[in-house]
Structure prediction request, 344 residues.
Amino acid sequence: MSSEPMRVASVGLGRWSKVIGAAATRSDKLELVTCFSRSQEKRDAFARQFGCDQAASYEELLADDRIEGVLLTTPNEVHVETVEQAARAGKHIWLEKPIANTMSGALQIREILEKTRVTFSIGHCARMSGASRKMKELIDTDKIGKLSMIEAHWSTGRAMQLTPDDWRWYADATPGGPLIQLLVHHFDTIQYLFGPVAEVQAFKGSLNTPAEVDDVTAVIIQFESGHLGYCGSSWVSPGVYWINVYGTEANLYQMLDLTHWGDPNIDKYTTLMYQSRGSSEKVPVEIPMRDMFREELEDFVDAIRQQRAPEIGWIEAAQALACVEAAIRSSNNKRPVTIAEVMH
Prediction:
């Protein structure tokens, strides 16, 4: 197993690429070598910030023999295309969530990966926060008794800032609005905590934004285990992020300050509370300080070096996206939709 850092390239140089680029530089397991965006201005700025080279085209970048893997933070609607190009060039792929805009796109990616055998990992970082890891530990060690249900909410005011020159403005580029931009993260985290989702019933709409996209949604969930859940999101409200877990002996309440989203020290701005049976008091739980952005990239590298599956690979990403697509179908058709129906 190589002890040398893995040489990577950043592709798609929008806002989130800076978060991921910074995470790569905080690790001794990655070396950020080059970058590409169709915008010369963005390439120049990224290369200056991270001291890396820049490629004049995606094809030039993929032909660079120095590059072992790519970090893709491209718009959702081109994920299938950019993944296919990288995989056929023999580059390992880390892709910012969601895996694709549709399940058909996710299935296309699966076919590509089966043919090329490159390592593929998705950026569902929220499950790797110290607070989420602590919740998982408390659940797995029976500190809250038998599981009952889970609730999660994620809202931001992003849709109020959209303009027609932003790809997120358009319904076909951002199906479900906050479903695919925000709740897809929670769909991964709640399945990490509770296991696979079996069925959803959802409502969504566009109430307060001039953009084409939906801006509010509520989703009722039944897990394969029989447990129940709720996920909600508004894309036109002040930032809110919480996950509550309910058990027979105790409840857990996680809340983070979204103004610090993207900060490697996000656990400093997160609270986790424990409420035991027979008490109304919520007691603080110590949260281990973790760097979820660095850790998701390092898991990607370790999976390659150790020839194992990454923690968040195709199946985990597809399960999260399946919840999005099932929720969209449920709202459109006014009926419950099973995950099996969507996955097939």
Summary: The longest strand covers residues 147-155. The chain is about 35% helix and 25% strand.
